Each structure stands twice: as C-alpha cells, then as structure tokens.
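writing this on my phone so excuse typos. first protein, seq and then structure
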Amino acid sequence: MRTKFLIILFSILFISCEEKYDLKLNLTQGKIYKQTVLTESSIYQDDIDSWPDIRVSTFYKIDYKVTDRKDSIFTISCKLKEMKIGFESDFNTQTIDSKEKDNGNPLNKIISNMVNKEFIIIVNERGKIKEIKNTENLYKNLFDGIPQITEEQKKEIAKTFKESFNDKTFKNNFENGFYMIPSEEIALQESWKNIFTTELDGTKMNLKNTFTLTKYKPNKYAIISGKSFITAKINKNESKADLNGKMTSKYKLNPFNGWIKEALITQEMKGMMEVIQDNQKKKSPIKIYNRIMISGY
C-alpha cells in the first residue's frame, strides 16, 4: 500500500513539475524576418475522383522588418519581394511572374510594379494583427512602363488586383501562419484547441483546430502538429457552395522568436456547387484540395 502511495505521489509531483514552454512571437526591433509561401490548389468538378479541372498556384516572398516594439506589440514594415501566379485549365494556361517583367507580358510588369512597396502591420505576440495600413501603396504607379494599355483596361485590372491583394488578404495570409500559437505556456505532448475564421473574396472558412506540441529541441526548434475540421461557404458571382472537410498541418518554429522555419498544410473539402447559367440553376459535386508550404528565417 505504501509503495502504491509513493508511486502516485511521485507521478503527481512529476506532472506538476513538467516543463512548459511559452511559444510566442518575440521579434527583435530592427531585424528583417523573411518568409516564402507557396499555395497549390486543385479544383475538381462533376467527376471529383478524376483529374482536376482547374489548378491554381500562388508563390510570394515577403520581408518583414520590425520597426518598433512596445512590450508584446510589434510594428512591422512589409515588402513583397517576389510574386508568381499560375493558372491551368482545359481551356487556358497562364503564368504571371514579377521576375519576368521584360518578357513582353504586361501582367508581369504590373505585378513587378507591386514589388518593394511598403505597407505596415501591427501585430501582437500571439500572431494576431491589430492593424494593417498603407496597402494602397501597392497600387501606386501600377501601370508604369505599360503605354499600350487603355484607361478602361487599367480600371478593370486594378479592380481585379485590389480584390485579390488588399488588407483582408495580407491579414489572412499572416495570421494563417500563426493561429496555431497557444494562448498560454504548454508542455510537451500537450494539446490545445481554437477556432480560426477567414472571410476573403467571397469565401468564408471556419476551422476548428486541435494542436499538439509534438517535439521540442532547446536551441533548435519546436514542432506543432494540427488536425482541423473545415466548414466553408462560397458565394461569388454566379456560384454558391457549401463545403466540409479536414486539414492536417505541421509547423517547425524557431523556439526563441516563434518565427516559422517550415510548415506544411493540406486541406481537402467536398460539397455541392450551385451555378446559375442562362437563368437556370445547375448543381454539381465539387472537391477542392489545397497544399500550402511556408518557409522562413
């Protein structure tokens, strides 16, 4: 009996003394933190078990310079350094690349004109953006070096780009990399839950997440693994859809400053899409598969 009591007592003491880690952003004023993000999306329609009907990829590099720090609040100057967008379907294949600005494609020149334009985010130590401003700088001189474009074309292109790259876009992209940060100290193999909601360009997505600190190497890295349930609504132009699915994620963080070293996120959603064509509603199954890769230093 005494032996059992000592074992239980020792277990309680061991649990209470288990080391916990405070994973959060701890950025240094004056330092530049770099990040690259590649998102690959495959969209399957009608025959969702066959080849994808549409493939879309986006790639960008961005520099984050910490210009001010007040306790747990960081003011960060952001600059796009490179951007590439790819689109592929049965009827069209197109690539827009900021590095190919002199190849004669005016869209390449347009996105190259967005590079190295400063905008500001104010973020807390848990990766939540408090404010974002000056994203309109991205569109200053957007059409420089493109004399062959009409005013009507300028308006249409500017509208399209502003719908795709705006305050909500950059807020979503930044927080999408840090919403797994726990709200308090955690121990190895401890799990925590949260809900993350995004609403962007006609799509609202709700993620119910469970994260676990699966590995911690002092002075090297921390690894967080996640499993999530997804509900999403699409309401854009003449299309509507209700989707459900799952997400898996794995993040390798710098344990000193909380910055992402590497991350891999996969999402799979299925549902029914309703499209209005010639004043008639057409319903068909749809599946969306996303793969997001992040690296940084």
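second protein below, same order as before
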Amino acid sequence: MKRGKLTVNLDKTNHHVCLSRQALALLRELHAITGRSTYLFPNQRDPKRPISNNTILVVLDRMGYKGRMTGHGFRALAMSTIKEQLGYRHEVVDRQLAHAPRDKVAWAYDRAQFLAERKKMMQDWADYIDALPPPVAQPAVRPARLT
C-alpha cells in the first residue's frame, strides 16, 4: 500500500482501492496492533487466515445492530450517500466497490478505472463522515469478543 492506493487482485484483474488520509491513519494504527500479519483482521484461531464473514455480523449484533445492518449494508449506504450527497457518478462509485460490468461486451472494452476521481471521492467521503454530527443516542455496546 503506497501513496493511499492498495492493489487487490480480484478475479485475476487488479482492483485499486483509493484510500483517504483518515483511512491510511487508521490502517497504520491497526498495523501497530496486528504487526506483520498478512491480514488487517486475522482469524483469531489461525492468523494465516482472515476473519470470517460471520465475524462482522457477530460484531454488529453485539453493537445492537442485529437485523438493522449487515457488512454489505455499509457498501449500499456508501454508494447511495456518495451519489446523492456528494454528487459522484454511478460508474465511479461502482469501480471503487469493485463491481464488474455485467455485460460481456462492456467487460471486454470498458477498462476505465477513474483513479483520480476515485481518490478525490474517497477523501470527500471521509471528510463527509468526519463532519457528521454525533448520534443522539447510540445503541448499547457489549464488549466484542471476536471468534
């Protein structure tokens, strides 16, 4: 991960994840905790594997969001808010979320990555989140015990 861009290989095509200053700071902080692990969130029982999909659901449940939010729900929330509140084009948000064109012809010819726009979008998104007022009432938080 250099200069706020992480390259991930999905389906044998490189996916570039543009990161905000805030995200980079959090990742550096997390790295101090996880050390030299391959994963930011390693599996507790086997650090050579990532946490399971179910772990995210368990954490959300313990935070009081059961039935109201899922891990994938954050992606939907981000897409809708970035388009409606920040005014970004669907294609740009779609590429950031690693959505592939559904049409085989579009997949073969449309290789636009929109990297400059995505980098600005992710910084705008992080700044938008930072500017949100604190919630009036937060759900009850139980100590998380990741398994």
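The mean pLDDT is 83. thats all i got for now
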